[in-house]
């Protein structure tokens, strides 16, 4: 089988021999023979249409691959030189040596490459004329962007030189909540006039040159004059004759000062309407989640979002509704907001097999066991997200921002479980969860530029979160021995849990930047955090409150962190160093249900460093190091019992202390738009001291466990690395290989709940994942993708003192895949994808699955499309997944949606 896969990989990676392309190469120099770098080189065919555009390399070279037997115009522009124009008859490979003549000394604000056609260079902005790159099969903005030189589009995200755009605007204004994927996949192509690429974009207009020295890009879309007030979208209606429905409406509107979005979707076959990137974009992008702020050090934090994902359950229905508005009444004020609702109702069966370890140490015996749970699952989820953004610029020196996020998550879950122990049935249970989570976060900031060399920012953040999960267990066997004797009704036990968790946090901080010289900068950051947490947990035997030891939790926790940080930035030519350190003063107070009080006051120093070297515009190397402390929160400290699942109970530890983490990174990137080759790689190292780890005590009599937390006496370490290599060999063939590797070494404790003795276990895990993707494009009508995904994991757990093996597993997954999109005619589009998944555990094949989906779409009228969609055409009924954690190895098998066919009609306007 592997030989077949290697052969498949080789064939898929080999370019076809019949391509009739010629190379047009050249070297550009001045009158003295010195190479001219970063000169713009444009190619036009006999119809005056742009066929390529690049900049000369750092040695003045350029290269194009073009169809042979045609005539082309070469135009070369560089400020300070006269424009060079030459006609070339490309019958075979051509290599030219070009000398540019010195031009007049003028202030060049705009260089026009080809009159009003194809490409203009305006200082740091490259402007593409959209009509010059259209061939007639473009429907939306994304179709045009894919044809622009140097620009890539991946899942709706726009990249230039391998880096993601920092901002995509329309008419200079952010629209659709900043969700560029929605814009790229829906804005009609015939509305686009110009596409402007800014190669020196700064997302923070108040930053000094040193604060934001990385190469950043932004994209602006200019609409045609008669389409600057535009309403567009699509409506889809479809289904089958049995149980499936597909209904969707997307409506977009924007003018020069207003934009709005309305999206509604209902489907019964697991179609994903928004992915995680979409949700993050609605919140303002990852920069909003990771924006510069405090050194808030509590474990876990707040505002944990659950993003719905694509699923294939056999019985389900999903609704997504989203509304967005944006208004810019004047240049000083921008207001935008959105609301989103998601409901998801699923029903499915699953089987979960868990293998627990056994060990022998110092005459202590623990016999491992295997459980199998056959589950019938029902899950109903309601999620709501909303956001308001206000940006106000009272003048060109100040900026005020306000952000308000409101979120709600409601989840009802029901499980009916037949339980088996080592092959024999051991019981039956019914389990119900009712979880509600409310959260609010708001940020107010004011940034002001002071003079020429200084800026200062003031920030206020408030976060509030309220969780009320309730858990109810009905079991034919006693659920846990921990709570003493429990009553039964009709031979059935009933254990209930009511929980409340409330977090309220305020953060105040200020950041001051001062440009010392043109090559050095100092940044000062100071602030304080206040967090109050209340955690209550009560357990009931039917309706009677359990009063046994540790059955009731009531923990109050107050946390304060005051910090000061200084960073010095110094640039030496192409090398830049950011060196600094912070000092934090921690004050923690906790009060427990037994009236015990704890108070800790500590001072910690946190050094950090970032080094970068930019070899040229295409190549850079960076390295960083920082330290961080993680402090336990209220749930960690509460040493009462909390139900985690029907087979595990959690017990906190009021003696927990902070854990120190060292993190080091090194990254290398290379992107060459001249050779269309890019390479990115990075390595991260983490070392954790006194890390907060899991200690588990197992009870083999009823297959339950009690999990707690301890500070480790040993250091945990993790190495992880990634790489991506991409190369476009010809205009019709490119390949991409990416992979990541992670190696972890960490410690846990486990033992027998009867003896309460804990043994220290050393765990080692190695995981690898690689994907090769080859893309072939023929005459802009047929696009083929062929590739292979390979993943490997190796996990081993053993007693630290005796090296006795507890658990060991090697899993291997192969997945060759292919995709095809064929524009048979201008009206008929055929799409299909296929994958073949093979899974091994300890060299034994546990599963193989072939998945095939296909669709055909016909444009029956100018704006109307009819599609026939076939999913899971090979009729797979189950999906198998494998995982491991500190306590057991788990294999899960669940049933999935079978074969289905859907017919839908879509109208675009």
TrEMBL record:
Signal peptide bounds: 1-19
Domain of life: Bacteria
Coarse class of the protein's main subcellular location: membrane
SUPFAM superfamilies: Carboxypeptidase regulatory domain-like, Porins
Annotated Outer membrane protein beta-barrel domain residues: 477-801
GO molecular function, one term: siderophore uptake transmembrane transporter activity
The keyword Disulfide bond is assigned to this record: no
Topology within the bilayer: Multi-pass membrane protein
GO cellular component: cell outer membrane
InterPro entries xref list: Beta-barrel_TonB_sf, CarboxyPept-like_regulatory, OMP_b-brl_3, TonB-dep_rcpt-like
Localization terms from the record: Cell outer membrane
Gene Ontology BP terms: siderophore transmembrane transport
UniProt KW keywords: Cell outer membrane, Membrane, Receptor, Signal, Transmembrane, Transmembrane beta strand, Transport
Protein name: Outer membrane receptor proteins, mostly Fe transport
Origin species: Algoriella xinjiangensis
């Amino acid at each position: 089988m592997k030989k077949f896969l290697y052969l498949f990989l080789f064939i898929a990676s080999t370019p076809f021999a019949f391509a009739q392309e010629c190379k047009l190469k050249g070297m550009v120099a001045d009158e003295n023979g010195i190479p001219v770098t970063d000169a713009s080189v444009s190619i036009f065919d006999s119809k005056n249409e742009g066929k390529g555009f690049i900049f000369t390399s750092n040695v003045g070279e350029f290269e194009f691959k073009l169809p042979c037997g045609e005539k082309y115009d070469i135009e070369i522009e560089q400020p300070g030189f006269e424009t060079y124009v030459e006609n070339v008859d490309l019958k075979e490979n051509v290599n030219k040596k070009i000398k540019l003549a010195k031009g007049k000394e003028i202030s060049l604000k705009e260089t026009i490459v080809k009159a009003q056609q194809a490409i203009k260079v305006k200082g740091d902005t490259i402007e593409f004329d959209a009509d010059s790159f259209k061939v007639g099969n473009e429907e939306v903005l994304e179709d045009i962007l894919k044809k622009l030189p140097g620009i890539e589009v991946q899942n709706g995200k726009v990249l230039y030189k391998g880096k993601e755009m920092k901002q995509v605007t329309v008419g200079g204004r952010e629209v659709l909540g900043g969700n560029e994927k929605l814009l790229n996949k829906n804005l009609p192509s015939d509305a686009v006039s110009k596409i402007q690429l800014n190669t020196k974009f700064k997302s923070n207009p108040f930053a000094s040159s040193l604060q934001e020295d990385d190469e950043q890009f932004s994209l602006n879309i200019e609409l045609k004059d008669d389409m600057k007030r535009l309403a567009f979208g699509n409506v889809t209606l479809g289904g089958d004759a049995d149980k499936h429905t597909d209904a969707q409406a997307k409506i977009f509107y924007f003018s020069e000062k207003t934009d709005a979005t309305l999206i509604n979707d209902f489907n019964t076959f697991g179609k994903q309407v928004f992915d995680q990137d979409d949700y993050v974009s609605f919140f303002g992008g990852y920069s909003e989640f990771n924006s510069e702020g405090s050194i808030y050090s509590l474990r876990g934090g707040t505002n944990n979002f659950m993003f719905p994902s694509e699923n294939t359950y056999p019985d389900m229905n999903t609704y997504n509704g989203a509304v967005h508005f944006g208004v810019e009444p004047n240049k000083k004020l921008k207001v935008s907001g959105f609301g989103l609702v998601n409901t998801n109702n699923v029903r499915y069966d699953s089987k979960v097999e868990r293998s627990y370890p056994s060990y022998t140490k110092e005459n202590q015996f623990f016999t491992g066991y295997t459980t199998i749970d056959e589950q019938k699952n029902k899950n109903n989820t309601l999620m709501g997200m909303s956001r308001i953004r206000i940006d106000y610029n009272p003048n060109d020196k100040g900026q005020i921002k306000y952000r308000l996020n409101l979120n709600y998550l409601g989840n009802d879950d029901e499980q009916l479980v037949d339980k088996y122990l080592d092959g024999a049935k051991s019981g039956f249970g019914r389990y119900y969860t009712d979880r509600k989570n409310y959260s609010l976060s708001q940020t107010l900031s004011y940034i002001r530029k002071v003079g020429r060399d200084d800026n200062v920012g003031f920030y206020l953040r408030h976060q509030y979160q309220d969780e009320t999960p309730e858990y109810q267990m009905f079991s034919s066997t006693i659920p846990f021995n921990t709570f003493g004797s429990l009553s039964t009704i009709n031979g059935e036990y009933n254990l209930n849990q009511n929980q409340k968790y409330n977090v309220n946090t305020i953060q105040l901080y200020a950041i001051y930047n001062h440009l010392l010289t043109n090559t050095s900068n100092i940044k000062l950051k100071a602030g304080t955090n206040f967090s109050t947490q209340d955690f209550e947990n009560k357990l009931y035997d039917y309706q009677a409150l359990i009063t046994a030891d540790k059955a009731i939790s009531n923990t109050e926790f107050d946390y304060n962190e005051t910090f000061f940080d200084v960073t010095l930035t110094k640039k030496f030519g192409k090398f830049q160093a950011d060196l600094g350190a912070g000092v934090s003063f921690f004050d923690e107070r906790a009060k427990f249900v037994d009236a015990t009080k704890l108070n800790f006051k500590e001072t910690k120093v946190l050094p950090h460093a970032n080094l970068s070297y930019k070899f040229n515009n295409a190549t850079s190397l960076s390295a960083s190091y920082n330290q961080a402390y993680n402090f336990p929160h209220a749930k960690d400290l509460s040493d009462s019992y909390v139900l985690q699942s029907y087979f595990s109970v959690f017990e906190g530890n009021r003696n927990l202390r902070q854990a120190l983490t060292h993190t080091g990174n090194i990254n290398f990137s290379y992107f060459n738009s001249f050779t269309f080759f890019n390479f990115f790689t990075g390595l991260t190292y983490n070392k954790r001291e006194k890390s907060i780890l899991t200690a588990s005590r197992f009870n083999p009599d009823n297959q339950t466990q009690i999990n707690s937390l301890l500070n480790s006496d040993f250091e945990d370490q993790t190495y992880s690395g990634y790489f991506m290599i991409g190369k476009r060999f010809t205009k019709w063939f490119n390949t991409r290989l990416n992979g990541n590797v992670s190696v972890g070494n960490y410690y846990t404790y486990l033992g027998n709940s009867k003896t309460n003795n804990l043994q220290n276990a050393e765990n080692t895990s190695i995981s690898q994942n690689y994907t090769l993707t080859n893309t072939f494009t023929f005459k802009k009508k047929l696009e083929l993708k062929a590739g292979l995904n390979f993943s490997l994991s190796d996990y081993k757990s053993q007693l630290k003192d005796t090296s006795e093996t507890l658990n060991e597993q090697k899993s291997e997954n192969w997945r060759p895949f292919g995709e095809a999109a064929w524009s048979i005619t201008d009206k008929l589009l055929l799409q299909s994808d296929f994958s073949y998944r093979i899974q091994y555990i300890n060299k034994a094949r546990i599963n193989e699955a072939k998945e095939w989906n296909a669709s055909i779409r016909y444009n029956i009228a100018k704006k109307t499309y009819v599609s026939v969609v076939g999913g899971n055409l090979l009729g797979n009924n189950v999906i198998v997944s494998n995982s491991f954690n500190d306590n057991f190895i788990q294999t899960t098998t669940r049933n999935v949606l079978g074969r289905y066919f859907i017919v839908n009609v879509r109208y675009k306007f």
